[in-house]
Design brief:
It is a single chain. The chain has helices spanning 54-67, 82-85, 100-120, 200-209, 226-252, 257-272, 278-293, 304-315, and strands at residues 17-22, 25-30, 33-41, 44-48, 72-76, 95-99, 139-141, 144-148, 153-157, 169-172, 177-181, 214-217. It has 318 residues and is an alpha/beta fold. It has one domain (17-315): Metallo-beta-lactamase, Chain A. A 7-stranded mixed sheet has the order 1-2-3-4-5-6-7. Helix 5 packs antiparallel against helix 6. The structure holds zinc ion (ZN). Zinc ion binds at residues 79, 81, 163, 182, 191. Residues 79, 81, 163, 182, 191 line the site of zinc ion.
Length: 318
């Protein structure tokens, strides 16, 4: 029987954790569903990654209200993906912050990405009709921006291309905590459909050099010791290098996408098959890896139609 498309068969609600990693710094994680980071300062609250819809965002707001009644001033977008940004309206924030790279990607492909992601993961987009449209940043920057939340300093850094061309992390230097967005996953499969696979490991090196002792990944539980931070970064990197290695080798040997996909699944499933959304991500991941290994620098835009066509070609059925 053909595999159900992407995560259309995933209907089970996940358990939420809201953990204080340092005074006023919280990790909202949900067993492999998209995470958010929360920082509480004297002047208000900063939320890193908004969730997929206002309904999902309200689950984060509910947790915030258990620890503070201060307003959410900043919603920071780690990158442009719908599952991270379309819940932003629920916070009523003064500012929505992203990198200039992310702003350009929203302009170029935000609408197509919105339609594609809703089709891939319907559970996360329940009540999507409440989304007022694309989420547009009100502030953006090229490589670095510092936000003073009052007694708490948050540095937003674009460390290079990786999961997308515009990823940023939020670094709290005094507490040595970093919110990594989808640049780092922890027990969850990296999605690389819009990635720059050759540069991503170098971006991870710059992230490692920050010396974080705690890290909130894009998906998976928080890393709460320096050892766990190193492990999360190393596991992400190993996955990316294995994936790109298979693609490069296959392209050099003149193999077809389908042949390279089957090879990647055979080699990578024993090592990574137990990670959340492995079967969802791999067809997209291998397709992009083969494109990049074939010299396509700028990721091709995914549309709902292209998603289904690719899935049929690699997995059969629909
Ligand atoms: Zn993403």
């Amino acid at each position: 029987m053909a595999k159900a498309f992407a995560s259309t068969a995933d209907l089970t609600e996940k358990q939420v954790s809201f953990e204080e990693l340092a005074p006023g710094i919280h990790a909202f994680t949900a067993e492999g569903d998209p995470n958010s980071g929360v920082v509480v300062g004297e002047r208000g609250v900063l939320v890193f990654d908004a969730q997929a819809t206002p309904k999902q965002a309200r689950r984060v707001i509910e947790r915030i209200r258990k620890v503070t009644d201060r307003p959410v001033r900043y919603v920071v977008l780690s990158h442009y993906h719908a599952v991270r940004v379309l819940g932003a309206s629920a916070y009523g924030a003064q500012e929505i912050v992203a990198s200039s790279g992310t702003r350009r990607l929203i302009e170029e492909r935000g609408q197509q990405d919105f339609e594609s992601e809703v089709g891939r993961f319907p559970r996360l987009f329940e009540d999507v009709a409440e989304v007022p449209g694309l989420t547009w940043p009100t502030m953006w920057f090229d490589s670095r921006m510092v936000i003073d939340l009052g007694g708490r300093r948050v540095e937003l850094l674009h460390l290079g291309r990786g999961h997308t061309a515009g990823d940023i992390v939020a670094w709290m230097p005094e507490e040595k905590v970093v919110f990594a967005g989808d640049l780092v996953e922890y027990g969850a499969t990296p999605y690389t459909g819009d990635a720059h696979l050759k540069e991503w490991p170098k971006t991870l090196e710059r992230l490692a050099e920050l010396g974080a002792e705690k890290l909130v990944p894009g998906r998976g539980g928080a890393a709460k010791t320096p050892e766990q931070v190193r492990e999360a970064i190393a596991m992400t990197r190993a996955f990316l290098e294995d994936l790109y290695g298979v693609a490069e080798e296959g392209v050099k040997a003149g193999k077809s996408l389908k042949e390279i996909y089957d090879e990647a699944m055979a080699r990578m499933r024993p090592k990574y098959g137990h990670w959340v959304i492995f079967d969802h991500c791999m067809p997209f991941d291998v397709t992009r890896a083969v494109d990049e290994a074939s010299g396509i620098d700028w990721p091709r835009i995914w549309t709902h139609e292209r998603d289904l066509e690719m899935w049929r070609a690699l997995e059969g059925g629909e």
